[in-house]
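Entry 14. Structure prediction run on the chain below.
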Amino acid sequence: MARRIYNYYAGGNTAEGFYDLFPEVIQQLERVFILKGGPGTGKSTLMKKIGEKWGEKYDIEYVHCSADYGSIDGVIIPALKIGVIDGTDPHVVEPRYPGIVEEYINLGESWDSEKLRQHKEDVAQVKSQIKACYDEAYQLFAEALRIHDDWEKIYINNIDVEKAEELTNYLKETFFGTISLHKNGNTVHRFLGAATPDGPKDFIQNLTDDVPKRYFIKGRPGSGKSTMLKKLVSEAEQRGIDVEVYHCGFDPHSLDMLIFRELGIAIFDSTSPHEHFPSRKGDEIVDMYEEVITPGTDEKYKEQIQSFANQYKQTMQKATSKLKESNILRNKLESYYIESVDFSVVEQKQKEIEAAIEKWEQLV
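Output returned:
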């Protein structure tokens, strides 16, 4: 019987460029296979096959690719503390203990270099075009963040700080009560979603599907959602409670979701672009606008708010179109490599990884 599959991102296209949380995601693993090799060498397919095989016995985590929705950048088997990850640009992973924890797997051995050299100029040109697309996308995301910051100021200037603190304290008491565990809490950092060539994607429903109690935070930009979540993280850490911290895929310094699996609780920002609504028993809404914002703020600043919302939407759409363009070019780049790859070599590499996992499985 298949076990649980959890999906999330470890890297994202943000207002600060590509933001990498891969080191956070793999820091507690005791064995990591780092795949090296160019585009089109079958890294994602290889990792999915490993996930399917061990998913019959263990919970599996798929680390998704923000550059190509549907592809993955890693597969992790938490019970074995083992993972296989894509270690190529932009998420280059530097080994902490090479040969002891991390091991490189060179899929470049599958290339016919003579065939590839015939496309040298084409590859160079396409790679340059891809970089230009990402540079433009990141500039647009940065511009969108500036607009978002100005939008937020309307609500920041209308927050009742005392009420915001009361709400945070109420949630601390509701979540944690008198709990204080005699251990160091384990905090992991990830992204619940990402800006992709197909637009914003998130895995909130997947990640919280087996969590009994879910809190949906509603509100406006600048209404204190992320600040409240950061205070809940700090409280959990002080009490020795494990917490999964999910960062915002647009502004990586903001938080979008926390999951306390030991307690059966999840709380997340449930506003656009990851808007969800209660759908089962145990779901509850936390409305930041109603709780902490001066009544009538929406009406008072209606025209400014609408202007910021329109500017933000248009800028984000332009950025997404650049990601879409990059994905088309990426597929073109992959085509040069695919025709030069001997996939029987890749399959042999997969078998070697599987044999190593099976051997490791006997030791843990």
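The mean pLDDT is 95.
Filed with the rest of this week's runs.
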